[in-house]
Amino acid sequence: MGQTPNQESSDAYTVVIFRGSTAKPLRFSFSRKFVRNLLIAGCFCVLADILVISHYVVRTGEVWELSAFRTEAMSAREQTAAFSSAIEDLKKRIGAMKEVNQRLRVMLGIDTSSRSGDMVNGRGGEETPLPEGSVVPGMDKSRPSDGSLSSLGPEQSGDGQGSSGLGYGQGDDQEVVASVKENLEWLTKEAANQERILNELSQVAEQRSSRWAATPSIWPVKGWVTSGFGPRVSPFTEKPAWHDGLDIGAAPNAPVQAPAQGRVTSVGFDPKLGNLVRLDHGFGIETIYGHLAKSLVKEGQRVKRGDVVGLVGSSGLATGPHLHYMVKVNGQALDPNKYILE
């Protein structure tokens, strides 16, 4: 038995397209099986598209992330190279400072056994050129004649390819990091060492400055020497005697100046020296001023080089107005002329 039209229509889907009021409509019939297969195929296509798009999105994200990592890595490499260059510059600066410090140590007498720079290889004298090919004893032919140091390693030759990692493409990242770390450790130790040396130099310079400020160096009064330091014939006994100071003749009431900074330790009268002032300059140095007409300072007062401490007179045992000037170092009287630089 054949199927009736109603049975056929119940197993299919019909699409009717109306083209107008007078035109005959178009009819398209699709079986249920065809429509079901078409829907299944469409679902597969949509699912495949979703998978492809998802994969594309994931891969695109990975590419962007990789690009960001690559950019970051390149930036890190550039920063590492710049940091290595800065370390090299600091090493050169510390080396120069080290040489200056060494020279200062020699100049200040801290390390007289060490020599640096031209102190080691100082040369001179008249020269006469030798013919080409002449052999000089002790001259190394492998050493360049222009004075360049061919024996220096890459770290000291200045080509920028040393252990600082400036030749970045010649090694891997671990070598560069290790080189930077090693240079940082060297800089830390060397900076601490140079800081210690600078502190030592500062202390010595301060001590030298303080000692110079406390060392007598000028005439205490403007005048003329009437009796020097050492043996003489006493003007009172007319017999040989030892004169432990310097007699400087000057006009009465001429100002007497302190030859260096110090502290007044004594102001009084002595039967022989008359009115006197005693200054303690530190470092074991002491000066005494005798036969003053008048003292102008008080005990315990601080004075500076050039300050007036008294006036010239003839008090005590004196044949006329003058200043008796004494310099003592660690309690021993020395020739004051050695402490006058004017």
Describe this structure in words.
The chain has 342 residues and is an alpha+beta fold. It has a domain at 224-339: Glucose Permease (Domain IIA) (Distorted Sandwich), CATH 2.70.70.10. The model is unreliable at 1-5, 114-128 and 134-170 (pLDDT under 50). It is rod-shaped and about 165 Å long. A hairpin with an 8-residue loop joins strand 1 and strand 2. The longest helix has 76 residues, at 32-107. The protein has helices spanning 5-10, 32-107, 173-214; strands at 12-17, 26-31, 224-227, 230-233, 240-243, 246-249, 255-257, 262-270, 274-282, 285-295, 302-303, 308-312, 322-329, 332-334.
Quick description:
This protein is an alpha+beta fold and 342 residues long.
What are the main properties of this structure?
Glucose Permease (Domain IIA), two-stranded antiparallel sheet, single chain, disordered N terminus, 36% helix, 342 residues, alpha+beta
Secondary structure layout:
Blueprint: H1 5-10, E1 12-17, E2 26-31, H2 32-107, H3 173-214, E3 224-227, E4 230-233, E5 240-243, E6 246-249, E7 255-257, E8 262-270, E9 274-282, E10 285-295, E11 302-303, E12 308-312, E13 322-329, E14 332-334
Antiparallel strand pairs: 1-2, 3-6, 4-5, 6-13, 7-12, 8-9, 8-11, 9-10, 10-12, 10-13, 13-14
Helix pairs in contact: 2-3
